[in-house]
Amino acid sequence: MSAPQIETLEKLERKMTLTLPVEVIRKEVDTRLKKLARTARIDGFRPGKVPLSIVTQRYGYSVQYEVVNDKVGEAFFTAANEAKLRVAGQPVITEKDGATGEQVSFEAVFEVLPEIKFGDLASAEIEKATAEVTDEAIDRTVEILRKQRRSFAQRAQDAVAQDSDRVTVDFSGKIDGEPFEGGKAEDFAFVIGEGQMLKEFEAPVLGLKTGESKTFPLSFPADYHGKDVAGKTADFMVTIKKIEAQHLPEVNDALAKSLGVASATVAALREDIQKNLAREIKFRTTARNRQATLDAVVKLAELDLPKISVQAEIERMTAAARADLKARGIKDADKAPFPDDIFRPQAEQRVRLGLVVGELVRTHNLQATPEQIRAQVEELASSYEKPDDVVRYYYDEPDRLANVEAMVIENNVTQYVLSLAKVTEKKLSFDELMSRN
Predict the structure, then answer these.
(1) What is the pLDDT at residue 430?
(2) Which of 1, 82, 217, 389 has a CA positioned 20 to 30 A from the CA of residue 323?
(3) What span, in angstroms and rounded, lies between the C-alpha atoms of 237 and 214?
(4) Any idea what the CATH number is for the domain that residue 307 is in?
(5) Closest CA to 305 of 357, 374, 352, 356
(6) Are 175 and 311 part of one and the same domain?
C-alpha cells in the first residue's frame, strides 16, 4: 500500500487518499467466505457441506463490502495515528473512480480536533460561592417535616375559613358568559395560603362559613399556564362545603421517632437535618462554582468547532427531545420535526466546553482516578437509606459510572483553574443558594 496523501480543505477539514492492493482485499474475502462455509445453513445442504461457489454466490457481495470497510478503516486510522492527527468523529469514505486491476483508491474526508489557544488562566476572575447551614434553615426544615405529618379536623358549622385551613368547595367560572375548560369543579379541596390556587381565588374564600357562597371576578395573569384563559377575566362562584383546621404535631421526641431518627430525640433530629442541609449546600456550591469556573475558562479559549461534533450533539439533543415527547404520550413523537437551528447554540456550547475541558485534562494530567470516582459515588450514595445498594447501582452500569467520572473530571479542572485564577469569595445566604438553579 502506498503512503496516504493528506491535504487541508478548510480550517479543521482534511482529505486523505488511501490506496489498497486488490490482492489483499481478495485474500481476506476468500478467507472469510471459507470460514463462513463451515457454518452456513442453506436449504438442501448439510451444515458445513455447502459448496464454496454457493456460499460465494449467496454472501460474496456482503462479505466483500465488510472487508473493504474494515481494511479501509484500518488503513485510515493507522495513517492518522502515524501522522499524529487527532480525528474528530468518523470519516466519510468514498471509492475513487479509475481503479486498476492491482489497486483501488479511496478518499476519506474528515475533521481533526482543533488547536486550542488559552489566555492566561491567572487573569480569569471567578466568583466562588460559599454558604453555611443556619438555625433558621433547620427551623424551616422542621416546619416542613411537621407539615408532612399534619392532620385536619373539621371545624364547627359556624366557623369561618381562615389562613392554613383546608377547604372543600364547589366552583364554576365563566368568561364572557361562557364556561371554559378547567373552570368548574366539585368537592375540590385546597389549603388556603399554600399557593395551590391563585391569591385572587383564595381571598374571597376567607371569612366564609360552611354552606355560604360568593361570586367574584378573577383576572388570570398574562403568563398563566392555561393559555386559553391567560390575560382574561372570569366570573366565579364558589360554595364552601367543608372547612378543616390544620393541626401540626409537636416538636418532640415522638416526632423525631416518627421520622426514623435513630436515637429518637429532637437534638438528634436537628443534627440529621444539619447534615442533610450541609450535604445539599456542598452539592449546590460545588455545582455553581464548577459552572462559573468552566464559563470563565471557555471565555479564555480560542478554537474552531468541528462541524461533525456539533452535528452529532444536535442529533443527540433531537433524539432526547423526541424521547421526552414519547414519554409524555405524544403521538408519532419519533417523527416530530426539530430544525437543527433550535439546538445549534446549545450544541455548540456543549462541544466547546467538552473540547476545552478535554484539552486541560490532557495537558495537565487531570484525569479522574479510580479512588476519586469511588469517593464521589459513595458521597452520592450517602444520603440514601441503603448506601451500599446505591454504590452497586452505579458500578453495575458503565454509563452511570461514566457520568460520575465526567463529574469528577470537571471537578479536577475546576480545582486546577481556581488554584491559578483571581478568586473572590461571595457568601450566600442559605435561601439565596437554594433559590438559584
Answers:
(1) 87
(2) 389
(3) 6
(4) 1.10.3120
(5) 352
(6) no
Residue 193 lies in a domain: yes
Residue 42: the pLDDT is 82
pLDDT at 104 (0 to 100): 84
Domain closes at, from 224, 247, 270: 247
Name the least confident of 46-55, 123-132, 160-169, 349-358.
46-55
Is residue 140 a part of any domain in this protein?
no
Same domain? For 287 and 405 the reply is yes
Q: What is the DSSP string of 222-234?
A: TT-S-TTTTT-EE
DSSP element (H, E) containing 242? strand 233-247
Provide the CA 81 distance to its chain's centre, in angstroms. 33
C-alpha cell read off for 24: 489483499
- With a cut of 90, say whether residue 238 has pLDDT above it: yes
CATH of the domain at 100: 3.30.70.1050
pLDDT at 48 over 80: no
Say if residue 323 is in the same domain as residue 428.
yes
What cell numbers appear for 72 in the block?
Answer: 479501509
Confidence check: pLDDT of 214 > 80: yes
Full DSSP string of 57-89: HHHHHHHHHHHHHHHHHHHHHHHHHHTT--EEE
User: Using one digit for the tens of pLDDT, what is the confidence trace for 271-311?
Assistant: 999 999 999 999 999 999 999 999 999 999 999 999 999 99
Q: What is the mean pLDDT of residues 29-34?
A: 88
Catalogue the E-assigned strands of 71-201. 87-95, 103-112, 117-118, 125-130, 151-154, 166-175, 178-191
Q: What percent of the chain has pLDDT over 90?
A: 66
| Distance from chain centroid for Cα 377 | 18
Number of domains into which the chain is organized: 3
What whole-number distance in Å separates Cα of residue 409 and Cα of residue 362?
Answer: 11
The kind and range of the H/E element at 298 are: helix 266-300
Asked if 265 and 400 sit in the same domain, the reply is yes
Per the domain annotation, does 58 fall within a domain?
Answer: yes
Task: Identify the domain containing residue 236 by its residue range.
Answer: 151-247
pLDDT digits (tens, 9 = 90+) for 97-156: 765 668 888 899 999 999 999 999 999 999 999 999 999 999 999 999 999 999 999 999
Please give the torsion angle defined by the CA atoms of residues 63, 69, 75 and 77, in that order, rounded to the nearest 10 degrees: -140
Where is 240: in which H helix or E strand? strand 233-247
As to burial, measured by CB atoms within 10 angstroms (0-12 exposed, 13-18 middle, 19+ buried), residue 313 is buried
pLDDT averaged over the chain? Answer: 90
400 with 373: CB under 8 angstroms?
A: no
In a domain, 309, yes or no: yes
Considering the domain architecture, whether residues 239 and 286 belong to the same structural domain is answered as no
